[in-house]
Amino acid sequence: MNLYEIAKERKIEIVSKYGGRNLARILNISHPAVSKWEVIPALRAYQIAHLGDYDLEYMRPDLIEALSINT
Fold it and tell me: CATH assignment of 3-70?
């Protein structure tokens, strides 16, 4: 399984933990916006990481790898 597929599974896990509507409220965005995510967008992953339950690296391992390749 590639890292993007892992990020897709983790999006499901995280949205389930918080609840889609609650997560939308926390992030001050609409629930339909959350529903459209295939993976958690980078900015939103950063915001969720600041809630303290998940690390950015856990939510979006594909981005972390991309950043390390480019540096």
Answer: 1.10.260
